[in-house]
Amino acid sequence: MEDSGNFLEKMEKPLTRVKKPPDKKPQEVQNTASSVHCWCGNERLERFSPEYMRCPVCETLVLERWPPPKTFRVVDDRRDFYGQTYYQSHLTGDYNYPSIEERSRTDLPERCLHWLKYALKYKLPPGKALELGCAHGGFVAMLKWAGFDAAGLEMSPWLVEFARSTFGIPMFLGPVEEQKIESRSIDLIALMDVLEHLPDPTRTMGYCLSLLKANGILLIQTPHYPEGKKYDAMVKENDPFLIQLKSTEHLYLFSKSSVREFFRRLGAKYIEFEPAIFFQYDMFFAVGAKQLLESPDNRVVDVLSKKPDSRLIQALLDIDSRFTSQRGDTDALRTERDRLQSLYDELLANRDVHREAYEKMEKERDHYQQLYDDTLKDRDALRDAYEKMEKERDKYQVLYNETLENRNFYQQAYDSVVKERDHFQKLYNDTLENRDYYRKAYEAMEDDRDRWQNLYNAKHQEHEKMREELGREIRRIGDELQSEHASRIFLLEHPMGYIGELFRFIMKKRRGDLRDKN
To answer: Within 13 Å of residue 153, how many CA atoms lie on the same side as its CB?
Structure first.
């Protein structure tokens, strides 16, 4: 395996603040809600809580109003946010956390050993390791004891000196981007509860990936936003994640899907999630640019057995394994105890209710007994009715048999009716067909009637005209004959003869052969 050498041999003055180059000025962070945007570039954020926005593109929570840019650096250790006061008063006073001195003892067998167990799962010593935001430096010390050439990094000069004097570890001061670290030289970079504090996580993590060897890994613990869950529901359920909504320091709160997308864009697409020690609100994972390979347990034992300090680490891991097993049994017993206690409390709470229900049941028992007795009486009546029904059944069976015998007769009658129906249906259809013929004949007769009526009217008019002409002719001839005395005498003496002669005269006149007799 490649010799890691001394981690500090290729790093200049790790305890000295390195002046920041002009071209590596941190990205300015605006303290206005209008300019807030997600690390993925999306500016159309949705309201999540009074202080945080939600990115619907990548499922990341983004602090709406950021602190000023100077907050992320430590110039005055006693006044700046991440300086000495952050560890000596802010964490202990505002969050009631143990002091940094106490944590330097209690963290070793708890979280530091937990982190180391999974660090060894994906990366074995020897190799170079760096922890950003290492606080008291206990995890860095355990990495060194396991066989890594490890160093820590912090922003506060006071904390850097505290870690160096407490655990004797090498320390860097200031942002990692300002450190003179050879690229592609580190095997493991750890960030425990640091990612959520970074004002420009893309830039910082991209730089860390550039420091890793080809098969190097990042080991990260950060709050886990349970995507899809609403703030009101969290408040109603008193979700443990609510304590991570720290508007003075947590800038980005990632979900599992958003952290995958975050590192995928940086070229580290391989990620493995492991159990977080504070699983109620944290996530813990290893990520790298190449496929992560797990070390078998026997290989871990072989590596840790080569040096005295690493043997101590192996002993601690063995104790932790046994403790974890016992803790699992204890947790199961504790869970069962809590369940039984809950049931007992519920029984105590419901005891009076059950007693009242029992007394009420006792009072109603006589009532139900009476109902039972009445039911027995009704049973006898029902039995009698049933026997009577049995007798009636035979009678109805005879009627049913007679009905079956008559069924054929009625079937034949029905068939005959059906045949008659078909016959009359045919007659009806024929009638419908002849109806059109008789309608046409009637219409033709109506037309003939109108024609003969017209002929009659024409003849009638012609006869009326002839009568009028005849009347005029008679009056003219009468006038001619009236002057003659003899004619008048003849007319007076022989009226009928005059009329006949007059008629013959008229007819001759019309034929043109009338002669003048005068």
So the answer is: 23
Q: Is the overall model pTM greater than 0.85, yes or no?
A: no
One-letter amino acid for residue 105 of the chain: R
Strands of the 149-154 sheet, one edge to the other: 171-173, 149-154, 128-132, 186-192, 212-223, 282-288, 270-274
Q: Are the beta carbons of 252 and 195 closer than 8 angstroms?
A: yes
DSSP string, 338-384: HHHHHHHHHHHHHHHHHHHHHHHHHHHHHHHHHHHHHHHHHHHHHHH
Strand ranges (DSSP E) for 167-211? Answer: 171-173, 186-192
pLDDT, one tens digit per residue, over 353-406 is 877 888 888 888 888 888 888 888 888 888 888 888 888 888 888 888 888 888
Residues near 244 by beta carbon (within 8 Å), at least 6 away in sequence? 196, 223, 225, 250, 253, 281
Strand pairing partners for 271?
287
pLDDT range class, residue 13, cuts 50, 70, 90: very low
Tokens of 472: 């005029």
Say if residues 163 and 154 touch (Cβ distance below 8 Å): yes
pLDDT digits (tens, 9 = 90+) for 26-69: 333 344 444 789 999 999 999 999 999 999 999 999 999 999 99
